[in-house]
C-alpha cells in the first residue's frame, strides 16, 4: 500500500500490517518491486531495501542519487528476469546479480515515463519524453573488463586514433641522470587491440605536450599542442607550436607536418 508519504507492507490474505516506512515530509513515493523494495523520492533520490517476502521485514536501507529530476519506476521483464527502469534525466536500468543490486545507465538524455510493456514483444519498451515516444529495446548488460597498462611514467594527455587503431599518449618523464629535475616529454603510441607499445617519439627539449587530439583525417593524423618554456627560467611562456603527425602502419612511423 503506497500513500503520498509512506509505504506499508500488508499481507494479501490476513490484511496484517507487516512493515511500514515513512518518507520525509513532502516527498511522494513511486514503487516497483523485484527482490528488493525500491522507493523513488521527488528529490531525485532512490531508496532501496532488502525485502523478506515471508516476514515483510525491510533491511539494508540504501540511498542513491539518480539525476536532478523526479524519478518514476517501471518494472519490465527481459529473458525471464525482472528489471526496473528508472525514468529521469539520467535514465537507468536497475537489476539484481549475485545478490547485489546494480545500476546501468541508458544512452538517452532524458526519459519522462516508461508506460507499459508489450506482451507479444516482451523485449520492447515504449519510452516517453515531452513531445516524443520511442519504442526500443534494452540490450543485454555488458560487463566491463578493466586492464591496467604500466607506463612507468606520468601520462598527461591521451587520445584515440580510429584509422590507425592506436592510443596516443603525451608522457612526462624526469631524468635523474641530469642531477636535477629535468623534464623530458614524449609521445607514445599504443596498439588499441594488443596494448603493446609502438614507437616512442621525443619532443624537442623545450616543448611540453599540453594537448593531443585526433586530427580527424582519414589517413590517421594526430595533432599535438606543445607549449614552449623559457630555457633560462624554465617557466612557461605564452607561445607554442602545433605538430600534426601522420601515423603510418605497420611500423608506426610519423610525418611531422
From TrEMBL:
InterPro entries: Beta-prop_RSE1/DDB1/CPSF1_2nd, RSE1/DDB1/CFT1, WD40/YVTN_repeat-like_dom_sf
Domain RSE1/DDB1/CPSF1 second beta-propeller: 35-136
Superkingdom as given in the UniProt entry: Eukaryota
A Pfam family reported for this protein in Swiss-Prot or TrEMBL: Beta-prop_RSE1_2nd
Record protein name field: DNA damage-binding protein 1 isoform B
Organism (species): Glycine soja
